Amino acid sequence: MNSKSNEQVLERIKQIEKEMANRTSDGMETSEFSSGGHKQHDVQTFLSLFTTSWKEVAEKNVTLERELRERIRGLEQSIDAEPTPDVQEKIDSLNQQLDDCVAYYNWVWSLVDFFDSGEVLKVVPFKETNLDNDAGGKHNEK
Question: Is the pTM value of this prediction over 0.70?
Answer without folding.
Answer: no
